[in-house]
Structure formats: C-alpha cells, structure tokens
C-alpha cells in the first residue's frame, strides 16, 4: 500500500489557467504559502485552446481583410493566405502545446505545483493522487469550463470538433460545418473560411451574437456571407453521422449536408464534475454561486473564480476576479475586515455585474461593454439608444475604404450616464476600453463632451454619438 503524503498550505488552488495563476500570484505576494494543482497543461484553456491560438489564427485574416480595403495595398495581398505559415505561428504561440515556460513562472513566484486531478475530500482538504493538501485558509476552484455538446445519438462516434480541435487543427478541412452562433462559432467560421475551408454556419436562433445588440450579428453575418460562408439561421441539427470520413448532417427540416468536419460551439459546461464537490455538500458538475469576494455561498473557506462561477465567461474577467479573490483571502487570513460597501475596495468584484467588456475578433470586429438597449430596458432603466453610422467618421474612412460599421450608446436618461456601448467595424476592438472607462466610471454625458477625440482617428465616433444625443 502506498503511504499518503500530507502537505499543509495557506491556500490550495485547483486549476493553473490564467485565473488560477493570478490567484496564486496574489496570495504569494501577500506572503501566503500556496499550492497549485493542474490536471492538464499549466496555462489552461486560454493559452492552448482558446484566447491565444484563436487570435493567432484570426490576426492574419483580419490584417489581410484590412489591407484589401486600401487602394495601393489591395493588389499586394491578393491570393490565398499561407495556411501552413499561419498554423505554424499559431503553434508557436501555444508553445507547441508544452507548458515549460508556465511551469517556470509558477516556480518563480514561490508556489508549489502538483500535477494530477485534484479532488476535494472534505473542508479545506484536497487529494492529488497519493498526496493530501490541506489549506489553512482557503481552497480556490479555478477549473474553468469545457465545451458542451448536444444530446445527439451517436455523436461521440462522429468525433466532432469542439473549440479545442478548432483552435489546434493542423490542416484546414475542405468542408466545415459550424453549429452555433456565438463568439466561438463566428470567430472560427471567420478563421477557417479564410484559411481555405468552405464553411457552413448553422444557427438555431434568428441571428448571430445574440447577447450583443442585434446589428452586431447582422453585420458579422453579412461579412461572412460576402467571404463565401453559407450562413443559415433558424436551422437545427437533427442527426449527425460519419461514414468513410464524411460527416453527414441532417437538419430539423430534413435537409442533408455533407462535410469533412463538424464543429459544435453551442455553449460551455463547468469543469466541476470530478473535483469532489459532493464531499462538501455541493452538486458535482454545477456552477458555483459566489459573493462579491468570490467566496462560495455557505462555505467560509471555499472560493470559485473565473468561468466556474458563471458570472462572466471571459479570461480578462476571470483574471480580474482572481485579483479580488487573492486580496480577499489575504485580508481574511490577516484578520482584516472587508469593506464591501466601498466601491473602490480591492476585495469586492463589481465589474462583472453590469460593465463587462468583450471583443469578438471577427471581420468586422464587434465590441461591447455594459448593457444592451434591451437588457437596460429589462432591468428597469429609462434609456435611449443613440446610433451612429461609423462611415461618417473621418478616421474610419482613412482606416479603410468603404468602411462599414455602426456604434450605439445606451444612455440612462434619469442619471445621464452610459449603461452600455457597442461598436461594430474594422479595428473597433481598440475602442472598447474608452467605453469601459465611461461605463464603469459612470461619467456624466456632459463631461464626455469635453473628452476631445484626436483627429483623424476612429475614436471621433464619440463626438458623432454625443452630437446625435444632443441634437435629437
């Protein structure tokens, strides 16, 4: 019989993705001994199968699209992308799916890394194989999410792509069917269509990017269609089979579609099914509800940070939460009270309530922060939507000939602040932080009039939006 090894730490973190790493960084900076447990690659989903590889695939696609909109440069970028070179660069950004550099970073902050499946075995106790880790102050669940797959008979035998296969594939399939209309679906449809695949996008709902303003999905769908993709809304999948390498999809209306690969991008599920939640009275496979210090409801020692708490499934929001959780754990360990009433408190996460920023790296890009017009109305705010065609902005015309885009700000008419902002168009991802500052800071509309945008930049859209609000 193998003897069990027990180790005592102040904090034990389950998951070594960007979120878990940030928790460990903060607790170590506070002088707390910290163990990090990882069952796969240190660096997590973002580094190897999500943020980094997807943006490495998309950057050449977007750069070529922008170049094609400029006379004098358009002719220089005619022809297909060098798919092999794009994939090689993507591989470099993932470290060829090795995590040596990330492991070195964990060591550099003075945290201990344990490889293997970490499972709770009771309050403040985690097992990793034959080792038992006991936490004096906190156990932090930062295990993230996995792709959710629909309950279609025989789907496992089809070997469908999820976001992992879509971002790590070493060749472009000739025909790719993408099921879904959200961020992963639209970004991967954009990337693989440009890299040589014939893409068919099947969307059950009425349009794409349904969590943004409706015009965002409309403009992205229009651009995908112009690029050669077949975008079909109101289309469900009834069955999927694979025979001799060919995937056969039958839609809800009985239509038959053949493909070389099929990607399901229909949602995410929490990676909490095999971490021992049942030993502490929680439901395995569930999302974990937390307060604003990221502490799990009903447990004064258990924290859930990042995707697993379902507050905002975005890496930057998870890292933000990790900084808050690390500070809260350190404060409680030192016996320092948390002042939750203070909006500037380092111990309180508020940015993921009504002011979450996001960029969708399609062509055109879609970027938003805060509430959409429909969400603001549903929340009971008296609001007005102010829209501007971004082609009216001089900087947009200089950025790209025939620039096509749209901007909206959602104005709270009682408080005269912004509840939300959305931009769609080439290059708008770099605009969203200015909108985030305005929304989070609750900057009065009248003050924004004196935040003068530089000329001639796309940021001048702010002036057009404010003029539209003033004049109508």
UniProtKB/TrEMBL annotation:
It comes from Streptomyces humidus. GO terms for biological process: 2-oxoglutarate metabolic process. FAD binds at residues 55, 118, 307. This is Oxidoreductase. Residues 9-316 form the FAD/NAD(P)-binding domain. Its cofactor is FAD. It comes from the Bacteria. Keywords: FAD, Flavoprotein, NAD, Nucleotide-binding.
């Amino acid at each position: 019989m193998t003897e069990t090894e027990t180790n005592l730490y102040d904090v034990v973190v389950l998951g070594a993705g960007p979120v878990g790493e940030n928790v460990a960084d903060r607790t170590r900076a506070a002088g707390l001994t910290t163990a990090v447990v990882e069952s796969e690659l240190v660096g997590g989903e973002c580094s190897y199968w999500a943020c980094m590889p997807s943006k490495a695939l998309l950057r050449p696609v977007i750069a070529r699209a922008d170049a094609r909109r400029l006379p004098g440069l358009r002719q220089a970028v005619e022809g297909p992308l060098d798919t092999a070179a794009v994939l090689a660069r993507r591989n470099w950004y993932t470290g060829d799916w090795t995590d040596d550099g990330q492991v070195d970073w964990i060591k550099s902050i003075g945290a201990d890394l344990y490889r293997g499946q970490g499972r709770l075995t009771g309050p403040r106790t985690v097992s990793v194989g034959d080792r038992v880790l006991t936490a004096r102050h906190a156990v932090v669940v930062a295990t993230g999410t996995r792709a959710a797959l629909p309950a279609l008979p025989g789907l496992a035998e089809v070997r469908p792509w999820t976001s992992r296969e879509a971002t790590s594939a070493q060749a472009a399939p000739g025909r790719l069917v993408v099921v879904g209309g959200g961020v992963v679906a639209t970004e991967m449809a954009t990337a693989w269509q440009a890299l040589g695949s014939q893409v068919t996008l099947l969307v059950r709902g009425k349009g794409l990017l349904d969590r943004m303003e409706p015009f965002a999905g409309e403009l992205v769908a229009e651009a995908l269609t112009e690029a050669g993709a077949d975008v079909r809304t109101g289309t469900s999948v009834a069955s999927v089979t694979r025979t001799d390498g060919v995937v056969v999809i039958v839609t809800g209306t009985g239509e038959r579609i053949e493909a070389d690969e099929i990607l399901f991008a229909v949602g995410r599920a929490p990676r909490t099914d095999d971490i021992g939640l049942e030993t502490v009275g929680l439901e395995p496979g569930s999302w974990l509800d937390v307060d604003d210090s990221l502490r799990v409801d009903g447990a004064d020692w258990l924290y859930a940070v990042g995707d697993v708490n379902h507050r905002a499934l975005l890496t930057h929001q998870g890292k933000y939460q990790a900084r808050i959780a690390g500070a809260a754990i350190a404060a409680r360990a030192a016996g320092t009270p948390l002042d939750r009433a203070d909006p500037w408190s380092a111990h309180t996460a508020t940015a993921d309530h009504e002011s979450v920023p996001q960029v969708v790296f399609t062509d055109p890009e879609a970027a938003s922060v805060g509430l959409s017009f429909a969400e603001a109305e549903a929340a009971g705010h008296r609001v007005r939507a102010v829209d501007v065609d971004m082609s009216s902005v001089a900087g947009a015309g200089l950025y790209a000939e025939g620039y096509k885009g749209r901007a909206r700000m959602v104005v709270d008419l009682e408080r005269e602040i912004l509840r939300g902002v959305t931009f769609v168009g080439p290059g708008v991802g770099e605009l969203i932080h200015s909108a985030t500052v305005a929304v989070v800071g609750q900057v009065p509309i009248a003050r924004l009039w004196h935040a003068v945008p530089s000329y001639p930049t796309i940021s001048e859209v702010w002036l057009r939006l404010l003029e539209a609000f003033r004049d109508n």
